[in-house]
Amino acid sequence: MLTNEQSQANCFLQCYAKQNNDSIPNISIPDNSQDINKPFSLKELEIAISHQKNSSPGHDKISLQSINHLPIKAINLLLKSFNDSLSSSQIPKDWTHAIILPFIKPHKNPKELSSYRPISLTSVIAKLLERMILHRMLDFSFQNKIFHVNHHTFYPHRSSINTLLQLQHDIILARERKECFILVVMDIKAAYDTVWPNGLISKLNKVGYSGKLLRWIQNFLHQGTIQIKWRNIFSKIVKNNYGVPQGCILSPFFFMIYMADIFEIQHDSHLLVYADDIFLYNSGTNWNKTIGEMQESLNKISVWCKKWKLATSPEKSILINFSRKRSTIPTLLKICDKPIPEVKSEKILVIIFDPNITWKNHINYLRQKGFKYLNAIKALSSPKIGTRSDHLLNIINATIRSIFDYGSQLFPFLAIATDKN
Questions:
Q1: Which residues contact 185 (CB under 8 A, 6 or more apart)?
Q2: pTM for this structure?
Q3: Cα separation of 341 and 252, whole Å?
Q4: Which residues form the Reverse transcriptase domain (predicted)?
Protein backbone atom coordinates (compact mmCIF):
# COMPACT_ATOMS: atom_id res chain seq x y z
CA MET A 1 0.00 0.00 0.00
CA LEU A 2 1.29 3.46 -0.95
CA THR A 3 0.96 5.93 1.92
CA ASN A 4 2.98 8.77 0.39
CA GLU A 5 0.71 11.12 -1.60
CA GLN A 6 3.42 11.89 -4.16
CA SER A 7 3.85 8.15 -4.80
CA GLN A 8 0.08 7.78 -5.11
CA ALA A 9 -0.04 10.60 -7.68
CA ASN A 10 2.72 8.95 -9.71
CA CYS A 11 0.89 5.63 -9.50
CA PHE A 12 -2.22 7.24 -11.01
CA LEU A 13 0.03 8.73 -13.68
CA GLN A 14 1.32 5.31 -14.70
CA CYS A 15 -2.27 4.10 -14.95
CA TYR A 16 -3.59 6.95 -17.09
CA ALA A 17 -0.65 7.93 -19.32
CA LYS A 18 -0.60 6.24 -22.72
CA GLN A 19 2.21 6.95 -25.14
CA ASN A 20 2.31 6.50 -28.89
CA ASN A 21 5.75 5.40 -30.04
CA ASP A 22 4.82 5.52 -33.72
CA SER A 23 6.45 8.25 -35.76
CA ILE A 24 4.21 10.93 -37.23
CA PRO A 25 2.84 9.39 -40.45
CA ASN A 26 4.19 10.63 -43.73
CA ILE A 27 0.80 11.42 -45.24
CA SER A 28 0.68 13.73 -48.19
CA ILE A 29 -1.40 16.69 -46.99
CA PRO A 30 -1.68 19.18 -49.86
CA ASP A 31 -2.61 22.77 -49.12
CA ASN A 32 -6.02 23.73 -50.43
CA SER A 33 -8.47 26.58 -50.33
CA GLN A 34 -11.34 24.71 -48.65
CA ASP A 35 -13.42 26.75 -46.21
CA ILE A 36 -12.13 24.60 -43.34
CA ASN A 37 -8.61 25.99 -43.92
CA LYS A 38 -9.51 29.68 -44.16
CA PRO A 39 -8.63 32.07 -41.30
CA PHE A 40 -11.22 32.22 -38.53
CA SER A 41 -13.52 35.21 -38.38
CA LEU A 42 -14.43 37.30 -35.33
CA LYS A 43 -17.99 36.02 -35.60
CA GLU A 44 -16.79 32.40 -35.31
CA LEU A 45 -14.87 33.26 -32.14
CA GLU A 46 -17.85 35.10 -30.64
CA ILE A 47 -20.09 32.08 -31.32
CA ALA A 48 -17.52 29.76 -29.72
CA ILE A 49 -17.34 31.96 -26.60
CA SER A 50 -21.14 32.10 -26.31
CA HIS A 51 -21.41 28.28 -26.61
CA GLN A 52 -18.58 27.52 -24.20
CA LYS A 53 -19.79 26.22 -20.84
CA ASN A 54 -18.26 27.57 -17.68
CA SER A 55 -15.67 25.07 -16.44
CA SER A 56 -12.60 24.93 -14.24
CA PRO A 57 -9.53 26.47 -15.89
CA GLY A 58 -6.59 24.38 -17.01
CA HIS A 59 -2.86 24.71 -16.45
CA ASP A 60 -2.83 28.33 -17.69
CA LYS A 61 -5.38 29.40 -14.97
CA ILE A 62 -7.40 31.40 -17.53
CA SER A 63 -11.15 31.15 -16.89
CA LEU A 64 -14.11 31.74 -19.17
CA GLN A 65 -15.13 34.72 -17.02
CA SER A 66 -11.79 36.36 -17.78
CA ILE A 67 -12.31 35.88 -21.51
CA ASN A 68 -15.87 37.25 -21.32
CA HIS A 69 -14.50 40.48 -19.81
CA LEU A 70 -11.80 41.02 -22.44
CA PRO A 71 -12.01 44.26 -24.47
CA ILE A 72 -12.46 43.96 -28.23
CA LYS A 73 -8.78 44.69 -28.83
CA ALA A 74 -7.77 41.70 -26.70
CA ILE A 75 -10.40 39.52 -28.42
CA ASN A 76 -8.84 40.41 -31.78
CA LEU A 77 -5.40 39.48 -30.44
CA LEU A 78 -6.82 36.14 -29.27
CA LEU A 79 -8.31 35.60 -32.72
CA LYS A 80 -4.93 36.37 -34.30
CA SER A 81 -3.22 33.80 -32.07
CA PHE A 82 -5.78 31.19 -33.17
CA ASN A 83 -5.23 31.97 -36.85
CA ASP A 84 -1.45 31.90 -36.37
CA SER A 85 -1.77 28.47 -34.74
CA LEU A 86 -3.90 27.13 -37.60
CA SER A 87 -1.68 28.65 -40.29
CA SER A 88 1.58 27.30 -38.82
CA SER A 89 0.08 24.11 -37.32
CA GLN A 90 1.99 25.00 -34.13
CA ILE A 91 0.22 24.67 -30.79
CA PRO A 92 1.35 26.19 -27.46
CA LYS A 93 2.17 23.50 -24.88
CA ASP A 94 -0.44 24.80 -22.42
CA TRP A 95 -3.14 24.12 -25.00
CA THR A 96 -2.38 20.38 -25.13
CA HIS A 97 -1.67 19.88 -21.43
CA ALA A 98 -4.25 18.32 -19.10
CA ILE A 99 -4.38 18.14 -15.32
CA ILE A 100 -6.04 14.88 -14.28
CA LEU A 101 -8.13 14.70 -11.10
CA PRO A 102 -8.98 11.12 -9.98
CA PHE A 103 -12.49 10.92 -8.46
CA ILE A 104 -13.70 7.82 -6.63
CA LYS A 105 -16.64 6.05 -8.31
CA PRO A 106 -19.74 5.40 -6.16
CA HIS A 107 -19.57 2.26 -4.01
CA LYS A 108 -16.05 1.32 -5.20
CA ASN A 109 -12.99 0.21 -3.26
CA PRO A 110 -10.79 3.32 -2.75
CA LYS A 111 -7.68 1.12 -2.62
CA GLU A 112 -7.99 0.10 -6.30
CA LEU A 113 -6.91 2.35 -9.19
CA SER A 114 -9.80 1.09 -11.33
CA SER A 115 -12.21 2.55 -8.75
CA TYR A 116 -11.33 6.10 -9.81
CA ARG A 117 -12.67 8.11 -12.73
CA PRO A 118 -10.17 10.55 -14.28
CA ILE A 119 -11.48 14.09 -14.84
CA SER A 120 -9.39 16.31 -17.11
CA LEU A 121 -8.86 20.05 -16.68
CA THR A 122 -7.75 21.56 -19.99
CA SER A 123 -7.16 25.09 -21.23
CA VAL A 124 -10.35 27.11 -21.78
CA ILE A 125 -8.56 29.02 -24.56
CA ALA A 126 -7.75 25.73 -26.29
CA LYS A 127 -11.41 24.70 -25.96
CA LEU A 128 -12.49 27.84 -27.84
CA LEU A 129 -10.17 27.01 -30.73
CA GLU A 130 -11.33 23.39 -30.67
CA ARG A 131 -14.96 24.52 -30.79
CA MET A 132 -14.33 26.70 -33.84
CA ILE A 133 -12.56 23.79 -35.54
CA LEU A 134 -15.40 21.44 -34.58
CA HIS A 135 -18.03 23.72 -36.15
CA ARG A 136 -16.09 23.71 -39.41
CA MET A 137 -15.60 19.95 -39.34
CA LEU A 138 -19.32 19.41 -38.67
CA ASP A 139 -20.27 21.67 -41.59
CA PHE A 140 -17.87 19.76 -43.84
CA SER A 141 -19.30 16.40 -42.72
CA PHE A 142 -22.86 17.63 -43.45
CA GLN A 143 -21.93 18.85 -46.92
CA ASN A 144 -20.08 15.65 -47.81
CA LYS A 145 -22.45 13.19 -46.05
CA ILE A 146 -19.60 11.45 -44.26
CA PHE A 147 -21.65 9.56 -41.67
CA HIS A 148 -24.01 6.63 -42.18
CA VAL A 149 -27.64 7.14 -41.14
CA ASN A 150 -27.25 4.41 -38.49
CA HIS A 151 -24.33 6.25 -36.87
CA HIS A 152 -26.02 8.26 -34.12
CA THR A 153 -23.08 9.47 -32.04
CA PHE A 154 -22.83 13.10 -30.82
CA TYR A 155 -24.16 14.51 -34.08
CA PRO A 156 -26.74 17.26 -34.64
CA HIS A 157 -30.30 15.90 -34.90
CA ARG A 158 -29.15 12.41 -33.86
CA SER A 159 -29.14 10.96 -30.37
CA SER A 160 -29.27 7.75 -28.38
CA ILE A 161 -33.06 7.90 -28.73
CA ASN A 162 -32.67 7.35 -32.50
CA THR A 163 -30.73 4.16 -31.76
CA LEU A 164 -33.29 2.95 -29.22
CA LEU A 165 -36.31 3.70 -31.44
CA GLN A 166 -34.83 1.92 -34.45
CA LEU A 167 -33.89 -1.08 -32.33
CA GLN A 168 -37.39 -1.23 -30.81
CA HIS A 169 -39.01 -0.90 -34.26
CA ASP A 170 -36.98 -3.75 -35.77
CA ILE A 171 -37.57 -6.04 -32.76
CA ILE A 172 -41.36 -5.50 -32.86
CA LEU A 173 -41.43 -5.96 -36.65
CA ALA A 174 -39.59 -9.29 -36.38
CA ARG A 175 -41.89 -10.49 -33.60
CA GLU A 176 -44.98 -9.59 -35.65
CA ARG A 177 -43.54 -11.66 -38.51
CA LYS A 178 -42.88 -14.52 -36.04
CA GLU A 179 -39.17 -14.36 -36.82
CA CYS A 180 -36.32 -15.03 -34.46
CA PHE A 181 -34.38 -11.89 -33.43
CA ILE A 182 -30.88 -11.94 -31.95
CA LEU A 183 -29.07 -8.84 -30.66
CA VAL A 184 -25.39 -8.61 -29.73
CA VAL A 185 -24.04 -5.49 -28.03
CA MET A 186 -20.28 -5.48 -28.60
CA ASP A 187 -18.02 -3.90 -26.01
CA ILE A 188 -14.72 -2.20 -26.90
CA LYS A 189 -12.13 -1.98 -24.13
CA ALA A 190 -11.21 1.61 -23.22
CA ALA A 191 -12.39 2.70 -26.66
CA TYR A 192 -11.48 6.41 -26.53
CA ASP A 193 -8.11 5.69 -24.92
CA THR A 194 -7.09 3.17 -27.57
CA VAL A 195 -7.75 5.17 -30.73
CA TRP A 196 -4.65 4.84 -32.90
CA PRO A 197 -3.60 8.46 -33.69
CA ASN A 198 -1.97 7.62 -37.03
CA GLY A 199 -5.05 5.63 -38.01
CA LEU A 200 -7.29 8.59 -37.13
CA ILE A 201 -5.20 10.96 -39.28
CA SER A 202 -5.43 8.48 -42.15
CA LYS A 203 -9.23 8.27 -41.81
CA LEU A 204 -9.61 12.06 -41.62
CA ASN A 205 -7.55 12.36 -44.79
CA LYS A 206 -9.62 9.65 -46.48
CA VAL A 207 -12.94 11.44 -45.93
CA GLY A 208 -11.59 14.75 -47.25
CA TYR A 209 -10.03 16.73 -44.40
CA SER A 210 -6.66 18.10 -45.51
CA GLY A 211 -4.36 21.11 -45.57
CA LYS A 212 -3.56 23.26 -42.55
CA LEU A 213 -6.41 21.86 -40.47
CA LEU A 214 -5.26 18.25 -40.79
CA ARG A 215 -1.66 19.17 -40.00
CA TRP A 216 -2.91 21.06 -36.91
CA ILE A 217 -4.90 18.00 -35.77
CA GLN A 218 -1.87 15.79 -36.36
CA ASN A 219 0.25 17.91 -34.02
CA PHE A 220 -2.61 18.24 -31.53
CA LEU A 221 -2.82 14.45 -31.19
CA HIS A 222 0.91 13.84 -30.95
CA GLN A 223 2.05 16.49 -28.45
CA GLY A 224 -0.39 15.95 -25.57
CA THR A 225 0.91 15.89 -21.98
CA ILE A 226 -0.71 15.16 -18.61
CA GLN A 227 0.00 15.36 -14.91
CA ILE A 228 -2.00 14.15 -11.91
CA LYS A 229 -3.33 16.39 -9.16
CA TRP A 230 -3.96 14.29 -6.08
CA ARG A 231 -4.81 15.94 -2.76
CA ASN A 232 -3.07 19.16 -3.87
CA ILE A 233 0.04 17.20 -4.86
CA PHE A 234 1.14 17.28 -8.51
CA SER A 235 2.88 14.44 -10.29
CA LYS A 236 5.54 14.95 -12.91
CA ILE A 237 4.50 15.84 -16.47
CA VAL A 238 4.60 13.07 -19.09
CA LYS A 239 3.54 12.65 -22.71
CA ASN A 240 0.05 11.28 -23.29
CA ASN A 241 -0.42 10.99 -27.01
CA TYR A 242 -2.34 7.76 -27.56
CA GLY A 243 -6.09 7.73 -27.95
CA VAL A 244 -8.20 10.87 -28.24
CA PRO A 245 -7.52 13.48 -25.51
CA GLN A 246 -9.93 13.21 -22.59
CA GLY A 247 -11.92 16.34 -21.84
CA CYS A 248 -11.34 17.90 -25.26
CA ILE A 249 -14.17 19.34 -27.35
CA LEU A 250 -12.98 17.54 -30.49
CA SER A 251 -12.60 14.06 -28.97
CA PRO A 252 -16.18 12.75 -29.50
CA PHE A 253 -16.11 13.88 -33.15
CA PHE A 254 -12.67 12.30 -33.64
CA PHE A 255 -14.01 9.01 -32.30
CA MET A 256 -17.03 9.25 -34.58
CA ILE A 257 -14.69 9.64 -37.57
CA TYR A 258 -12.65 6.68 -36.34
CA MET A 259 -15.76 4.47 -36.25
CA ALA A 260 -17.32 5.76 -39.49
CA ASP A 261 -15.96 3.18 -41.92
CA ILE A 262 -17.24 0.24 -39.87
CA PHE A 263 -20.36 0.63 -42.02
CA GLU A 264 -18.30 -0.21 -45.12
CA ILE A 265 -18.03 -3.83 -43.93
CA GLN A 266 -20.17 -6.07 -46.14
CA HIS A 267 -22.32 -8.46 -44.09
CA ASP A 268 -25.93 -9.65 -43.78
CA SER A 269 -26.74 -8.36 -40.29
CA HIS A 270 -27.98 -4.94 -39.20
CA LEU A 271 -25.60 -2.50 -37.54
CA LEU A 272 -26.19 0.51 -35.28
CA VAL A 273 -23.43 2.54 -33.60
CA TYR A 274 -23.71 4.96 -30.71
CA ALA A 275 -20.40 6.23 -29.28
CA ASP A 276 -18.38 3.10 -28.50
CA ASP A 277 -21.44 0.81 -28.39
CA ILE A 278 -21.83 -1.48 -31.41
CA PHE A 279 -25.30 -3.01 -31.84
CA LEU A 280 -25.39 -5.96 -34.23
CA TYR A 281 -28.62 -7.84 -34.83
CA ASN A 282 -30.29 -10.21 -37.26
CA SER A 283 -33.70 -11.79 -37.75
CA GLY A 284 -35.24 -14.50 -39.89
CA THR A 285 -37.42 -17.61 -39.93
CA ASN A 286 -34.49 -20.02 -39.97
CA TRP A 287 -32.52 -20.20 -36.72
CA ASN A 288 -29.37 -21.73 -38.17
CA LYS A 289 -29.21 -19.27 -41.06
CA THR A 290 -29.76 -16.29 -38.74
CA ILE A 291 -27.09 -17.45 -36.28
CA GLY A 292 -24.67 -18.25 -39.11
CA GLU A 293 -25.05 -14.76 -40.59
CA MET A 294 -24.58 -13.19 -37.16
CA GLN A 295 -21.38 -15.13 -36.53
CA GLU A 296 -19.99 -14.15 -39.92
CA SER A 297 -20.82 -10.49 -39.19
CA LEU A 298 -19.16 -10.72 -35.77
CA ASN A 299 -16.04 -12.21 -37.35
CA LYS A 300 -15.80 -9.40 -39.92
CA ILE A 301 -16.28 -6.67 -37.31
CA SER A 302 -13.66 -8.32 -35.07
CA VAL A 303 -11.18 -8.27 -37.97
CA TRP A 304 -11.96 -4.58 -38.54
CA CYS A 305 -11.38 -3.81 -34.84
CA LYS A 306 -8.06 -5.65 -34.87
CA LYS A 307 -6.94 -3.78 -38.00
CA TRP A 308 -7.58 -0.43 -36.29
CA LYS A 309 -6.10 -1.52 -32.93
CA LEU A 310 -9.39 -1.60 -31.01
CA ALA A 311 -9.70 -4.46 -28.52
CA THR A 312 -13.09 -6.18 -28.24
CA SER A 313 -14.23 -7.56 -24.89
CA PRO A 314 -16.32 -10.75 -25.35
CA GLU A 315 -16.90 -11.14 -21.60
CA LYS A 316 -18.44 -7.65 -21.38
CA SER A 317 -20.43 -8.00 -24.58
CA ILE A 318 -23.97 -9.36 -24.32
CA LEU A 319 -26.43 -11.41 -26.35
CA ILE A 320 -30.22 -11.11 -26.03
CA ASN A 321 -32.84 -13.31 -27.70
CA PHE A 322 -35.94 -11.20 -28.46
CA SER A 323 -37.78 -13.96 -30.34
CA ARG A 324 -41.39 -14.79 -29.47
CA LYS A 325 -40.51 -18.48 -29.36
CA ARG A 326 -38.22 -18.97 -26.38
CA SER A 327 -35.84 -21.35 -28.11
CA THR A 328 -32.32 -22.01 -26.98
CA ILE A 329 -29.84 -20.50 -29.39
CA PRO A 330 -28.47 -23.51 -31.32
CA THR A 331 -24.88 -22.32 -31.36
CA LEU A 332 -23.09 -19.98 -29.00
CA LEU A 333 -22.06 -16.82 -30.77
CA LYS A 334 -18.43 -15.88 -30.27
CA ILE A 335 -16.10 -12.91 -30.52
CA CYS A 336 -12.49 -13.90 -31.21
CA ASP A 337 -13.38 -17.54 -30.35
CA LYS A 338 -14.71 -16.55 -26.93
CA PRO A 339 -18.44 -17.07 -26.17
CA ILE A 340 -20.71 -14.07 -25.67
CA PRO A 341 -22.76 -14.34 -22.45
CA GLU A 342 -26.53 -14.49 -23.01
CA VAL A 343 -28.74 -12.37 -20.75
CA LYS A 344 -32.51 -12.14 -20.30
CA SER A 345 -32.64 -8.43 -19.56
CA GLU A 346 -30.06 -5.67 -19.94
CA LYS A 347 -29.68 -1.91 -19.64
CA ILE A 348 -28.99 -0.54 -23.13
CA LEU A 349 -28.25 3.18 -23.36
CA VAL A 350 -29.84 3.65 -19.90
CA ILE A 351 -33.08 1.84 -20.89
CA ILE A 352 -33.65 -1.70 -19.55
CA PHE A 353 -34.70 -4.02 -22.37
CA ASP A 354 -36.59 -7.24 -21.56
CA PRO A 355 -37.16 -10.16 -23.99
CA ASN A 356 -40.84 -9.33 -24.60
CA ILE A 357 -40.38 -5.53 -24.93
CA THR A 358 -42.93 -4.86 -22.17
CA TRP A 359 -40.55 -2.36 -20.45
CA LYS A 360 -41.73 -3.84 -17.14
CA ASN A 361 -38.21 -4.03 -15.71
CA HIS A 362 -37.40 -0.46 -16.70
CA ILE A 363 -40.65 0.94 -15.31
CA ASN A 364 -40.05 -0.88 -12.01
CA TYR A 365 -36.54 0.56 -11.92
CA LEU A 366 -37.93 4.08 -12.46
CA ARG A 367 -40.60 3.47 -9.84
CA GLN A 368 -38.03 2.48 -7.21
CA LYS A 369 -35.85 5.43 -8.10
CA GLY A 370 -38.88 7.71 -7.99
CA PHE A 371 -39.72 6.67 -4.42
CA LYS A 372 -36.18 7.57 -3.31
CA TYR A 373 -36.52 11.02 -4.86
CA LEU A 374 -40.01 11.37 -3.40
CA ASN A 375 -38.67 10.96 0.13
CA ALA A 376 -36.05 13.64 -0.53
CA ILE A 377 -38.71 15.97 -1.95
CA LYS A 378 -40.91 15.42 1.11
CA ALA A 379 -38.03 16.51 3.34
CA LEU A 380 -37.42 19.61 1.22
CA SER A 381 -41.12 20.51 1.20
CA SER A 382 -41.55 20.47 4.97
CA PRO A 383 -43.96 23.28 6.04
CA LYS A 384 -41.55 24.44 8.76
CA ILE A 385 -38.09 24.25 7.17
CA GLY A 386 -38.87 23.43 3.53
CA THR A 387 -38.03 25.47 0.47
CA ARG A 388 -40.46 27.60 -1.57
CA SER A 389 -42.72 25.79 -4.04
CA ASP A 390 -41.21 27.51 -7.10
CA HIS A 391 -37.70 26.55 -5.94
CA LEU A 392 -38.93 23.02 -5.34
CA LEU A 393 -40.31 22.85 -8.87
CA ASN A 394 -36.96 23.99 -10.27
CA ILE A 395 -35.21 21.26 -8.28
CA ILE A 396 -37.61 18.63 -9.62
CA ASN A 397 -37.16 19.80 -13.22
CA ALA A 398 -33.38 19.92 -12.89
CA THR A 399 -32.83 16.56 -11.18
CA ILE A 400 -35.82 14.25 -11.52
CA ARG A 401 -37.90 15.03 -14.57
CA SER A 402 -35.13 14.26 -17.09
CA ILE A 403 -34.75 10.76 -15.64
CA PHE A 404 -38.43 10.00 -16.27
CA ASP A 405 -38.64 11.83 -19.60
CA TYR A 406 -35.64 10.04 -21.15
CA GLY A 407 -36.80 7.24 -23.42
CA SER A 408 -40.50 7.99 -22.93
CA GLN A 409 -40.89 7.81 -26.73
CA LEU A 410 -40.43 4.05 -26.41
CA PHE A 411 -43.42 3.50 -24.11
CA PRO A 412 -46.60 4.50 -26.00
CA PHE A 413 -48.30 1.11 -25.62
CA LEU A 414 -47.45 -0.20 -22.18
CA ALA A 415 -49.39 -3.04 -20.62
CA ILE A 416 -52.09 -1.70 -18.26
CA ALA A 417 -50.42 -3.10 -15.11
CA THR A 418 -47.06 -1.67 -16.10
CA ASP A 419 -48.63 1.67 -17.02
CA LYS A 420 -50.19 1.95 -13.55
CA ASN A 421 -46.74 1.55 -12.00
A1: 277, 278, 279, 280, 317, 318, 320, 346, 348
A2: 0.90
A3: 29
A4: 84-364
